[in-house]
Structure prediction request, 318 residues.
Amino acid sequence: MKLLVTGGLGFIGSNFVKYHLTEHPEDEVVNLDKETYAASPLALRELRKLRNHRLVKGDICDRNLVGKCMGGVDAVVHIAAETHVDRSIRNPRPFVRTNVAGTLNLLMTARKCGVSRFHHVSTDEVYGSLALDSDKMFDEATRYSPRNPYSASKASSDFLVQTFHETYGLHTTITNCSNNFGPFQNAEKLIPKAILNALSDRPIPVYGDGKNVRDWLYVDDHCSAIDLALREGKPGETYCISAGNEFSNLQITKMLLDIIGKDDKLIQFVEDRLGHDRRYSLDSAKIRSQLGWHSQHPFREALTQTVSWYREHKNSFS
Ligand SMILES: NC(=O)c1ccc[n+]([C@@H]2O[C@H](COP(=O)([O-])OP(=O)(O)OC[C@H]3O[C@@H](n4cnc5c(N)ncnc54)[C@H](O)[C@@H]3O)[C@@H](O)[C@H]2O)c1
Prediction:
């Protein structure tokens, strides 16, 4: 199978390309990435070593380029996006451009080129926020209720993908995943920032009261779910992905400090993010029962491995 992967130099994209070509060495990957600030130079170095991988530097909004990249492609795995909520609050425009207009461009081109499968990688953030004291979980039937420009742009892209299935019969699948952690993530995100700051004895900023809860998944487990949904997912379906590792930001930060062997005194509470979603919790029963997916990486072990990876590569993040 020949795949077009978008955003394959970012955190999840680069892990997915490596995962996919390890699992399916006979496949070919064209990796279209704009190389924004979020693209990882370390990932670029590693991916260059892979056989059956071709990198194209460019924008998913560029009609001509996307048309060229999709020639002879069997499947699209759309991972590229603007992803940092704080940046979307400061300036939503690039989020609408890439996440909405870029997704539309890919869908229209996929239809024109007769691509057989279009898999869209999305987030649990489209479902909004749960109360800390509630025992509710999000699942595929939950009504969309995005609360910041990032999640609104992802929700819009999900609707476009669903529409291309309903209206034009494009074979689409969507995965909405909980928060990921692992190697190659940009240092602006909570876990890499906490690790890198702790390793250099710098204060670790924690928003508000630190009680906001996220549901954490090791990135390779996300990659295996994407791979499965791409190959075996039913057209038009959405699958929620999580491993039920719910922790507050403060708990995560303390766990990291414990693994690294540094004092909690490095924690510095800072002014809360505007409209900060309180809790995400995602039920992955559908993909487990219908496609047989399960996460394979125990949380604490994967977190410890992640710390080791950033320790080994910390000089590349300065
Ligand atoms: N990180 C998470 O915890 C998480 C969880 C669930 C879902 N997701 C989704 O997974 C996807 C990837 O997230 P990530 O954290 O790996 O992102 P990231 O910010 O690390 O990487 C995004 C990549 O997309 C590329 N890109 C951005 N704009 C582009 C454009 N216009 N054209 C081509 N390439 C462009 C960047 O250069 C970068 O390499 C996103 O769609 C995100 O919504 C992320």
Summary: Residues 2-184+217-244+280-296 form a domain with the Rossmann fold fold (CATH 3.40.50.720). The radius of gyration is 19 Å. The chain has one domain: 2-184+217-244+280-296. Residues 93-113 form the longest helix (21 residues).
